[in-house]
Amino acid sequence: AIGYALDRVTIASLATNDLCEVTDTFWTSDISPPGTDRTIYTYNPTKAEQLLDDAGYTADPSGERFSIELLTRRGEAEETIVGDLIEDYLSEVGITVTRQLVDFATQLELTSNHNYDMSLTKRWVQTFWTYQLFHSDWIIPGQNFANSVYFDNPEMDATFDSWLVETDSTK
Predict the structure, then answer these.
(1) Which of 130, 49, 129, 64 is nearest to 98 (CA)?
(2) Minimal CA–CA distance to 99: which of 75, 114, 112, 117?
(3) Which end of the chain, N or C, is less packed with Cβ atoms under 10 Å?
(4) Rounded CA separation 130/149 (Å)
(5) CB-based contacts of 76: which residues, under 8 Å, 6+ apart?
(6) pLDDT digits (tens, 9 = 90+) for 48-75
(7) Residue 169: what pLDDT?
(8) How far apart are CA 168 and CA 94, in angstroms?
(9) So what's the pLDDT on residue 1?
(10) What residues have CB less than 8 Å from 101, skipping those under 6 apart?
(11) Of 89, 116, 4, 96, which is closest to residue 54 (Cα–Cα)?
């Protein structure tokens, strides 16, 4: 429901002055072709509300369904704008967002230990970071700069492993 409640195109446009392209995958197609079984979330607040209702999250008389905490870093302009927009869009479907602004070290600690509802962090997609942030060998609970989302996909692990030995960047 949250995916349908957010207008990602507008969020990306406003937060980055149209410099960011909205994608439906984490990795670009040159790293990993998109799967055919992924769900594409287009902005549809009516569908978001229906999904919330169907899941038992009905709105109270004031229109609120539930609240979540959004973890963001201090001093990150784009993250602040995105956080503001997420708060606005989710309020339209009855989800109240409270913000927890923290320094980077605190965010790493909280996310590594899964002590958050929703986290907003700019990610860099460089080969060496992608490997340890998403390879299943790096699923190490409580460890910073590890696979804290527990992504486990043997096909992607094989792709990541090939990066360690391949010297031709076109492959």
Answers:
(1) 64
(2) 117
(3) C
(4) 12
(5) 122
(6) 999 999 999 999 999 999 999 999 988 8
(7) 67
(8) 50
(9) 97
(10) 72, 73, 74
(11) 4
Look up tokens 């349908």; give the residue: 4
Nearby residues of 4 by Cβ (< 8 Å), 6 or more positions away: 41, 42, 43, 44, 45, 47, 48, 51
Measured between alpha carbons, how far is 69 from 45 in angstroms, rounded to an integer? 20
Tokens found for residue 140: 């190490």
Q: How many residues does the chain have?
A: 171
Q: Nearest 5°: CA angle at 47, between 41 and 53? A: 125
Rounded to an integer, what distance in angstroms lies between the CA atom of residue 108 and that of residue 106? 5
DSSP state of 21: P
Q: Is 159 exposed, middle or buried (0-12, 13-18, 19+ CB in 10 A)?
A: middle
The predicted-structure confidence for 124-145, as pLDDT tens digits, reads as follows 555 556 777 778 888 887 776 7
| Burial environment of residue 55 by CB neighbours within 10 A (0 to 12, 13 to 18, 19 or more) | exposed
For 23, the token pair is 């994608």
Q: Taking the model in full, what pTM does it have?
A: 0.73
